[in-house]
Prior knowledge:
Oligomer: single chain
Radius of gyration: 56 Å
Distance between the termini: 191 Å
Helix content: 55-70%
Strand order of the largest sheet: 4-5-6-7-8
Strand content: 5-15%
Shape: elongated
Order of helices and strands: HHHHHHHHEEHHHEHEEHHEHEHHEHEHH
Amino acid sequence: MADQPEKTAVPAAPEAQPATTTTAAVPVPEAAVSELQPEPKAEELPAEPATTTTTEPAAAPTEAPVTESAPAPAQEQPQEDKKEEKEEGEEEEEEEEEKKEEPKEEKAEEKPAQPEYLAKNPALSQFFDRLPSILSSTSYNEMWGVSLKDSADVPTVNVLIKFLRANEGNVKLAEEQLTKALQWRKEMNPIALADGHYNAEKFSGLGYVTKYTEENGSEVITTWNIYGNVKNVEATFGDSDEFIKWRVALMELAIKDLKLNESTTVIEYDGEDPYQMLQVHDYLNVSFLRLNPTIRAATKKTIEVFATAYPELLREKFFVNVPTIMGWMFAAMKVFLSKNTTRKFHPISNGVNLAREFPSLKDHFPKPYGGNGPALEDGALTVKLEQAAPAAEPAAAAEAEAPKEEPKEEAKEQAKEDAKEEAKEKPAAEEPAKAETAEAPVAAEAK
């Protein structure tokens, strides 16, 4: 029994173990416990668990920093690398996506250049694709005062819409017509013709341009051709080129008032066109149109030019005071003009009924056409006219001088004859007679 206190003192060693557990703490408690297990007392048994429980928790904190702290940095570093790699990969993917999206962004930027009026009308878009080639082939870009540019320019859009509508949406035909019209304007220079001067004897009183304002504020441009005022058929229509230049000059004056080059709104392709004019042709007292080949030739040539160079500028055309014999003229027009144009033609047998077609303009139309407005001669615009009298004066002067030369010659001959007679009768006075004959022509030329 005396040995037991010594043996019981041995378990005290484990209590001191926590101080050395940092180096070999784990195997020591196991050996101590295995040695003490054969002779434990019932009362001391609880002490061993207490020592084990105290030693194990003590070892746990010491092991945890050693075992967990060392690998922790090794595990975290790969995660950071992976994050960095992932971030780099994401950045590369983002760059690739940006590169892929760049064309999309460019397309998005190009969308404003593809406005709604082109998206709705593929034919108009195709027409604009052909425009650079048209301008290059003609080396000319002016049409009705508009400098043709691109689809972002509203005046250019309206010009192309007119040519496309005139050809019922056929891009190829519209391209051909625009090309011909540009070539014609390049050669003819119609803007200069509008500022030119024309023979008053041939064209005075034949053409006018009016601008009337309706109640809603819109302006109505009208060209008037008064063929009943023709004084000399051959003088007016005999030179068809001169007649066309005068007629083109009148048309260009009307186009200036349309102000196509100042347009800010695109024409609705299937809607109303505010950039159009009215035309009135008055044939009162005209009886020469049916049979005169000069008139027919000039009319045919004018129709051809206007059909090519001025499409879709006509809102409506009225033939007033029309005789029944003029059926041939309408037949000729249908040959050269499109259906969209000929459907706008309205023959009226009595010119007084014209104002009925435009009730809002009754106060503006001249009285011969059913209105209450002033006569065309008093308020309408026309081309510049000049009298041809100065050119005829030199011819008249030459004709006036011609008869005066005959007496001179006769006086000379008569003077010679008289001198001969006098020489025969008075031989002694021969010398004075010669002196008198020499003076006679000089006096005659002076007179």
